[in-house]
C-alpha cells in the first residue's frame, strides 16, 4: 500500500477529485494549506501599501491506495491539476505499513 500526497492549486480540487473517481480511486482527504516553493509568493497592494504574500493558498490531498493503483492515481492527479504554470504543485508517494478500519477492525487492503 502507498500513501499519495499531492499539493495542488485550490481551484483544481474538483477536477482532481473527478479524475480520481474516473480512475476508480475512492476516498480522499483534502486539507487547505499555505506554502511556497520556487514560486516564492507575490506582492500585493492593499490600501496603497505594498506587501509580500509569502505563503500561497494550496490544497493538500491524501490518499491511501493499493500498489496496483499508484500509477493510475499519479496520472489522474497530474492530468487534472496541471495548468502548465509555476505553482502547479507536487506529488509525494510513501509506503504505508498498516491500515486499520476503526469501525470493523479490517486491516490493510480490506480497510482501504
From TrEMBL:
GO terms for molecular function: ATP binding; enzyme regulator activity. The modification O-UMP-tyrosine is found at residue 51. It holds the Pfam family P-II. Keywords: Nucleotide-binding, Phosphoprotein, Transcription, Transcription regulation. Coiled coil: none annotated. GO terms for cellular component: cytosol. One of its GO terms (biological process) is regulation of nitrogen utilization. PANTHER family: NITROGEN REGULATORY PROTEIN P-II, NITROGEN REGULATORY PROTEIN P-II HOMOLOG. Belongs to the P(II) protein family. Homotrimer. This is Nitrogen regulatory protein P-II family. It comes from Marichromatium gracile.
Amino acid at each position: 500500500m502507498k500513501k499519495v500526497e499531492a499539493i495542488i492549486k485550490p481551484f483544481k480540487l474538483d477536477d482532481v477529485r473527478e479524475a480520481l473517481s474516473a480512475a476508480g480511486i475512492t476516498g480522499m482527504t483534502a486539507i487547505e494549506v499555505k506554502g511556497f516553493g520556487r514560486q516564492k509568493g507575490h506582492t500585493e497592494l492593499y490600501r496603497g501599501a505594498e506587501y509580500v504574500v509569502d505563503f500561497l493558498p494550496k490544497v493538500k490531498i491524501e490518499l491511501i491506495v493499493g500498489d496496483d493503483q499508484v500509477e493510475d492515481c499519479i496520472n489522474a492527479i497530474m492530468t487534472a491539476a496541471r495548468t502548465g504554470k509555476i505553482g502547479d504543485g507536487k506529488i509525494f508517494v510513501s509506503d504505508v505499513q498498516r491500515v486499520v478500519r476503526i469501525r470493523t477492525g479490517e486491516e490493510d487492503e480490506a480497510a482501504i
